[in-house]
Amino acid sequence: MFPRINIYLDRIYQNAKKLKGILNTIEIMGVTKGVCGDPFIAKEMLKGGVDYIGDSRIENIIKMRRKGIESKIFQIRSPQLSEIRKTVKYTDGVFISEISIAKAIAEYSRLIGKKIGIIVMVELGDLREGVMPEDVLNFINESRNYGAEILGIGTNLGCFGGVVPTKEKMEDLLKIKETLESHGIDIKIVSGGATDTISLFEKEIIPGINQLRIGEAILLGNDTTGNRRIEYLRHDTFTIEAEIIELKEKPSIPYGVIGRDAFGNIPHHIDKGKRKRAILALGRQDVDIESLIPTEGGLEILGGSSDHIIVDVTDSQNNYKVGDKISFYPLYPSLLKAMCSKGVKKRYIKETN
Asked: Which of 3, 199, 287, 342 can pair with 242 through a Cys bridge, CB separation 3.0 to 4.6 Å?
């Protein structure tokens, strides 16, 4: 059945193993949110050497637990107050930035007799989540007064504001650690960021930063924030296949009165004369069309709608017909949507035993 995403488990394992070898003493949290908490992929990450798993959504974490993932799992997006009970039950730690969340975790942990660790996120300029640096000491002291178990501090860069991780940003985080420790607070974990921070550690290990949260690099071998393909990693870890449901020569310019498309955009087209166009049974409901790369040359993605993608196949060496499949490499936005789509079938491929 199609559309289908092919998942090359051995290649994901190889990426995890390679990164663990390069980062060496730094703990790697293998982040599974980009694959909707897929337990088979989580197992390959762990087999490749990541130290534990992180995911943003409690539903994904519960799914992994029920499918046999026994390693530590951290909830890397702050839990909602409405899901604290599940968070305490199923996770080993959380990343938070609100005192009410810390209080609720501490209270429910005490009620059921299970403590989970808290990593306090610190705002260093990207302006997503994080306690302002000058407020971290008071935040942690208040959390401890409620009975919360503080494991460490962390930061997020690149995901919202596009702020690039630098050595100076890491040093700012380490200064906060020093301040906390000078007040008698033991900071076991300093989580320095995500895939976009790897480039810093390729040059040198920054003493004191002892954890990175890595998803995209393991899954796709890319660093979107750094705008690079990580050359020593594999990029052929996933492919998405879709079936041709119409194949016809048509004009390259729509004719009639032009308004907006189904998503409210004003379309722009280039007149190339008549072109052979394949319509695929795959759309924006399943993927991010702009982040698909055809696996063969001579194909051009023209656009699409919620359930269709239109591809110019005029210059392809293949003599396509209705029922044939066209394959793409997904970038992160397409991977995320495809793995979470009920309409995209999953095929797990093991190339070695």
From this structure: 3
Q: Any long-range contacts for 81-89 (C-beta under 8 Å, 24+ apart)?
A: 83/58, 84/108, 86/58, 86/62, 87/58, 87/116, 88/112, 88/114, 88/116, 89/114
- pLDDT one-digit tens code per residue, 270-319: 889 999 999 999 999 999 999 999 999 999 999 999 999 999 999 999 99
Catalytic residue positions, numbered: 33
Distance separating alpha carbons of residues 344 and 334, to the nearest angstrom: 11
Residue with tokens 């959390």: 143
Cβ burial of 89 (10 Å; 0-12, 13-18, 19+) is middle
Say if residues 199 and 218 touch (Cβ distance below 8 Å): no
Domains of the chain: 9-225 (3.20.20.10), 238-349 (2.40.37.10)
CA distance 344 to 353: 26
Q: How many CB atoms lie within 10 A of CB 259?
A: 8
Strand partners of residue 274: 251
